[in-house]
Amino acid sequence: xxxxxxxxxxxFLQGVAATGVASLLLPGSQRAFGYQAANDRPVFATIGLRxxxxxxxxxxxxxxxxxxxxxxxxxxxxxxxxxxxxxxGKKPDAYKxxxxxxxxxxxxxxxxxxxxxxxxxxxxxxxxxxxxxxCEKPLxxxxxxxxxxxxxxxxxxxxxxxxxxxxxxxxxxxxxxxALIRAGRIGTVKKVTCGINGMVAxxxxxxxxxxxxxxxDFWLGPAPKVDYRAxxxxxxxxxxxxxxxxxxxxxxxxxxxxxxxxxxxxxxxHVDIASxxxxxxxxxxxxxxxxxxxxxxxxxxxxxxxxxxxxxxTSFKIRVDMPNDVEMIITSEGDNGILFEGTEGRFFxxxxxxxxKPVEDLKDNPLPEGAIEEVYGGKxxxxxxxxxxxGMNSRKQPISDVWSHNRMLEICHLSNIAMRLGxxxxxxxxxxxxxxxxxxxSFLSREARKGFEINM
Length: 456
Prior knowledge:
It holds the Pfam family GFO_IDH_MocA. With 456 residues, this protein is of the alpha/beta class. It has helices spanning 9-18, 52-58, 74-88, 99-102, 116-128, 143-156, 172-182, 216-220, 261-265, 267-277, 357-360, 371-376, 384-394, 402-421, 438-441, and strands spanning 43-47, 65-70, 93-95, 109-112, 132-135, 160-162, 189-195, 287-294, 299-300, 303-304, 315-322, 326-331, 337-342, 345-349, 354-355, 425-428, 433-434.
């Protein structure tokens, strides 16, 4: 038995019970969460370690042991190897190439926190390698990538969780919001507004030398080959220690080559909750209209002309026609959060508050017992990793599944395509194609750079 498989079942149960998720061990199970012997814990590896990669790893030590880490930046890798060793008392193996992680037979699951343009390739290859997968949001760079991931999940039978933590860790208020909608506390929903904030434009970002320790070509991976760009001023706070403006660490979110701006960053949170509340997690919109928007650079045929500045939308107001004649507005204006409006009332919810008369009325007219748990589908896990491991143990998909995530993320991707092309898009939710617009449909996928295709 390896050093990562020494924790006893009693110790493990004590740790789980302390988090309020002792139900993770299903009745009749003959082992804990590992897959070799009765006393095992699951063995994990994290691929992509800056910021969110460390965050999801740090939240998982109470449930799993980390045998390996992978990152294309040796500086980031080295720092996190030390962190993990300090946390669990054993040093994980370190790799630049994630494929060496996938070759390991002792690793049960991988946590993926790379930039978005790498998610699908690593996730698909991990599933074919027999690993369960936890992948950060937004799950995909394109809509067709989502279809591929769904296909491989079905084909391989792997458990796959998306890191949309508003469904559990930071989600009590959001679950309450959905329960209010289901209980009819605002009547028939007519409109939902998702405030997701905007982005700032960048100055011209010059070409410069690649930082020591970073394999820039490998970081680009499936994305087009370009020069590294950065300004010397460092970012403060979250994402600190990296340039304030660049086309790499942290700032990759501002480039369509690697991500989708605020639409897929915060949109992946609030549009998800809104779709869940509307019961539209397995359907989709009929039309997406860019009402107002601002792109920081000139576009031609849907592609940015400049390559030396951020290119994701800085401000926007998108109207989305949802099922049952519900209007969804996705906006960079106003408070970050979700406003639900119905025929009999309205309320607002975000990570810090849930306010409005229907919420105030709960004092005298509370929700039925178990209403919030019913939304979640059972006992609520306050740790997203706990819910993932519960799925690993039961072989059932967790609360943040790929199908509901992809359906709502299609709204975000379509919003970006609509702004890039400057026109409304009609969407066939059954065929998952844009209606009557060949040019727009060309944006549903993107060819990988040669040498970085998905190995299937």
